[in-house]
Write a structure and sequence with these properties.
By secondary structure, the chain is mostly beta strands. About 0% of the residues lie in helices and about 30% in strands. It has one helix and twelve strands, in the order ββββββββββββα. About 20% of the residues are buried.
């Protein structure tokens, strides 16, 4: 069993319409969560678990694990609105195996998700489990950036970041949503072929 826990409630969500199966970002740190101590967790947070108000296990994906500061964990909440409460568990009791967590379940409604936590290796692993790892092509480089909205950001220079075989397996048809944070250092060329954020294979027009 997991010996310690804390209840987390959703604040600042003003809409009267809730969000179903929503990946909610939980910021974890000793400063923000009273009673939480990294020293009482397993390496890399492998004993962390989340449950809803009824005790049902919720899938989570550890984006960034930082024992020296703030960790970022995405938790799939069945229905999120202001006042929604979930529980975070940790501190594994000796001899006990925690319930299995499948990180890919967090992103079951997505085709591809990239956190860029592995950008230092020149790639961006796909968190969905579909295998759409993105790599730099055309001689470009991908590295970790110290400028980000939160967590780790990937800095692409030259070439293009592309997920191979994406178009063949999931051809873009009809309406779809692309979300993320993007900063162009050279705004004078934004919108040109050299700085297109998203494009169809063989061209730069979405």
């Amino acid at each position: 069993m997991l010996r310690e826990y804390v209840d987390i409630s959703v604040d600042g969500f003003e809409s009267t319409v809730g969000l179903m199966n929503f990946p909610m970002l939980v910021r974890v740190s000793e400063e923000k969560i009273k009673g939480f101590h990294y020293a009482r967790t397993a390496a890399n947070g492998t004993d962390i678990r989340f449950t809803d108000e009824n005790g049902k296990l919720l899938p989570h994906d550890i984006d960034t694990w930082n024992p020296e500061g703030e960790s970022l964990i995405w938790v799939k909440v069945p229905y999120m609105m202001k006042g929604t409460r979930i529980r975070m568990h940790w501190a594994l009791k000796r001899g006990f195996t925690p319930p299995v967590n499948v990180r890919e379940d967090v992103w079951s409604d997505y085709v591809a998700v990239w956190h860029f936590s592995d950008a230092a290796r020149g790639q961006a692993e796909d968190a969905t489990g579909y295998g759409f790892t993105a790599k730099m092509l055309g001689g470009g480089t991908l590295s970790v950036s110290d400028t980000s909205v939160f967590g780790v950001a990937g800095a692409a220079a030259g070439g293009k970041l592309e997920s191979l075989d994406y178009e063949a397996r999931y051809p873009v048809r009809g309406k779809f949503t692309l979300t993320g944070w993007y900063m162009a250092k050279n705004v004078t060329t934004f919108g040109t072929a050299a700085s297109a954020l998203f494009g169809k294979k063989g061209g730069t027009t979405p």
